[in-house]
Fold each of these.
Amino acid sequence: MFYIPGMPFEEKLAWIMAAVSAVAYAVYLTLLLGQAGPTPLAEVAYVPIMLWSIGAAVVVAIVLRIVAAALAPEDAGQKDQRDREINRFGDHTGQSFVVIGGIAACVLAMAEADQFWIANVLYLAFVLSAVLGSLTKIAAYRKGF
Amino acid sequence: MVKPTRVTNSIRSLRFAHGEMTQAELATRIGVTRQTVIAIEQGRYSPSLEMAFQIARVFGVPLDDVFQYPGNAEETP
C-alpha cells in the first residue's frame, strides 16, 4: 500500500484513512464488548476506550503518512487540481454521515437517552464518514472523475 | 457513481510527435502530477478549460487538435 509506483500520494492517504478508521473502530468495539460481558452496554466505562482508540488512530495515521512519504519522497505532498477536486468530492460524500450522526444524536438527546448511546452514535457517524469519504476518493482515482 | 468523461484526446500521439515527450515532462510543464496526465490520457479525468489550454499550448496546436467531444456538430446551435 505504501510503495506502489503510479499510485497518487493522495490515493495512498485515502487508503490509510479508510483502513485506520475501520480498524480503530473494530478494535474499539472488540474492547467494549469484551469489557461488557453480562453488564449492560450503557454501563461500561466506554470513555477511556473511545479516547484511546481515537488517539491511537490519529497517531497511526500520522505515522503511516510519514512512512508513505518516506517511501515515495518525489510524490509526497504533491497535490494538483485533480487531487483537490477528488478530495472535495470525497469529503462532500462522507459528510452525509456526519449530518445523519448529528441528527441521530439530537434525537437521542431529546429522548433523554444515555450519554453512552449519544457518544457512540456520533463516533460511528465519524467512522462511517471517514470510510465512505475515503472509498469515494479511491473510486474516483481508479474509475474516473 | 462517477461518470468517466466523454471527452477524448490525442495527447499520447501528440507527445510522441513532439520528440517522444514523457508524461512526467508534460506534467511538469503544465504543473500537475504524472498521475493526472495519465488519467487525462486514459479518459478518466476531464481537465479544466484552463488546463486544456495549457496542454494545447505545450504542443503549439489549437484546442480542437488535443481534445475532441463525440456528437453531431450540426446539432449544436
Amino acid sequence: MNDRPILSVTGLGARVAEEDQDILKGVDLAIRPGQIHAIMGPNGSGKSTLAKVIAGHPGYEATAGSVFFQGEDLLEMEPDERAQAGVFMAFQYPVAIPGVSIANFLRTALQARLENGEELDLFDFQELLMERMELLRMDPSFAQRAVNDGFSGGEKKRNEILQMAVLKPALAVMDETDSGLDIDALKVVAHGVNTLKAENPGMSVLLITHYQRMLNYITPDVVHVMVNGRIAESGGPEVALGLEEQGYEKYRRAQVA
Amino acid sequence: MSRMAPPRERAVRALNRDAVLETGLADPAWLKARREEAWDVYMATPLPSTRSEEWRYTDVARLLPLDGLEPNLEGADRVPDPLLRTMARDQTSAGRVVDIDGTVVSAELDPALAAQGVVLCSLREAARSCEPVVEALLATRAVPPSDGKFPALNAALWTDGVFLRVPKGVRLQEPVRLSRWVSRPGTATLTRILIVAEELSQVSFVDEIMSPDFESATLVNTAVELFSQRGAQVQYVSLQRMGRGGFYLASQRTLAERDSTLDTLNVALGGSVGRVDLNARLLGPGANSDMLGLYFGDDDQHFDFNTSQDHVAPDARSDLLYKGALDGSARGVFRGIIRVHKGAQRTDAYQTNRNLILSDDAVATSLPNLEIGADDVRCSHGATVGQLDAEALFYLMSRGLDRAQAERLVVLGFLGEVLKRLPLGGVTEKVTKAIEAKLRHVRA
C-alpha cells in the first residue's frame, strides 16, 4: 500500500465566513490510501466544520494552514473541482432538489466529468446505475424520485450512499451521516460503506460522528478525538471505546488546564 | 388564378374604421355588423392605464405605440424555415394549422376524424360557411368586446384564426397543433381561436407562436375562446416564443360546463412584453380546470399574468399553478383572483404562484387574491419569491457539477413541476430545450 497520505491537513484554522471566531484552531490530520479514520467529538467541537472545509462549503473559510489531497491544494479549488478530483462528502443534511430525479442528477454529475464534446452513453449509464443499486440492495424505482424531496431521514442517507457508489470517490467524508438514524438505517449506511470499501480497498474514509455506535459497524483504523477545534487525542479503536465509558469530560479539563 | 383588376393600393395604414371595413369585406352581414359594433366599443374604451389595478405594472401607453401600428392584413404564402424546423420537431398530431402573419395558410385534419364530424378550419372560412355555432359563440360569451380595449380591438379587426369543433363523444388521441409566425415589424396581428368540445368529447390543442426579433414594437393579440360541454375534456397549451420586440397580448376565457375538464398551460419564453388575461369559468357541478403557467424572463423581458377563477356553480374545482424564473432585469407579474360566487358551495379552488429570481436586478410581483361568497368551500392561495438556494447549489457542485450546470438543474427542476402536470406529446421536450437555450444565453 502506498504510504503517502491521500489527505494531509496541516495546522488548519477555519471559521464561518465573515465571522471573527475560528472554529478550527490548528487541525493536523493525515489519511493514507485505504485507511478509515473516525473523528469523534462533542457538539461544537468543529468536526463538522472540518468536513465542510474539505468539501469547499462557501459558508466556511480557512484562516490558516493547508489541505492537500493527492498532492493538490484543495483550498484553491472550487467544490466541483474537488469532487472531480475524487473527494466526496456525504451530507449531514442532504438538500432537496425538487423536480430533479436522482438518475438525472447522477447522469449530469457523470457527464460533467467528461471532456467537452464527449457524451455520456445513456445505456452505459443506466446499466451502471442499476448495477450500483443492486449492489446496495436498493429498489430501482428509488432513482426516479426527486433528489431528497420528501425523503425520510433514512432515505436521504441512502441517497448519499448511492451517489457515493456511482461516483466512486478516492476519499469519502461522512459528515455525521449517522445522526438521527434508527439502528436499521444505520446498518444500511454501514453496509453501504463496507460494501464500497470491500469493492475498492484503496478508498479512504473520514467518518465524522458524535456517537460510538457507528463504529460498531464500520471499523476505523484510526480514531481522533476533536475538542474545541483541535485534535486532542488519536489512537486505535480503543480510543472510541474509552469515550463510550468516560465521555469527553477529561479532554475538556485537559484543555482548560 | 389570374385577376383582371390591377393590384389594389395599400391604403390601409393604421388601426381605424377603414381597416375594419377592409378586413370585413368578404364577411357575412352579421359579422360585419359585429366588427363595427366592436370598433365603437374600442373607440369608447380608454387605453388601460397603470392607474387601474389590473394594469398597474404594465404601462401599455409607454410600451406600445398603438396608433402607429399597421394592421397585418397581407398574410403570406411561404412558411419560413424557423417555423418549419420547430414543426418538424413536433410529434404526431390529429391536425395541423399554419398561420403566417395572421392568415391561415393551411389546415389539415386526419381524414378519419373529419369523417366523424370534427371540423378544423380557418376561422374566416368557418364564419363564411355559416357555421351557426360560430355566430353564436364568436366574441359573445367568452371574449366579447365589452371585456376591454384589446378584446374590442380584436373583435373589430381580427383577420383569421382557428375554428375547431369536436362532436359529441369523439375523442382525439393526438393533439391539434397550430404553428404561427409573424414577420412584419410595427404591425398588429389580431387573431382568434374558437374551440368547441361537445359532450363527452376530448381534444388537446397546442398553439405555438414564433417570430424574428423586431426593431420596433410589434403587437400580437390573440383572443382564445374555449368551450367544454358536459363531460368533455379540453387542454389548451400556448407556447409563446416570439422574438424581441414582440408584444404578445392574449385574452383567454374558458367555459367549463358540468363534469367537464378544461385545462390550460401558458408558457411565456419570448417577446419583449407578454400579457395574458385568463378567466376560467366553472359553470357546472363537477367542472374542473387546471391552470398552469410557466415563464422564464431574461434581459428586460416583461411578463404579466392576470388570472381569475370564477366558480359560478357549486361542486367544481380549479387549481392554478404558475411558476417563473427571472434573470437579467426581467420583470414578472402575477395577479390572480379566486371568485367563489354566491351559492357555489363545496368549491375547491387553489392558486399558487412561485418565482425564482436568478439575478439582483430581476423583479417578481405576486398578488394572489380571494373573494368568497359561499361558506362551505376549500380555497387556498400562496405566493413565493425566492432566490437560488446556495445550499442546493453547493450540494450539486459537491458532486462535480459546475455552477452553471447546477443552476440549470435547479431551474429546470423548479419549472419542470409545471410541465409534469400537463404531459402533452412534444411540449415538455420543446419547452425544456427552449429553457436550456435561454440558460446558456444568460450564463454564457
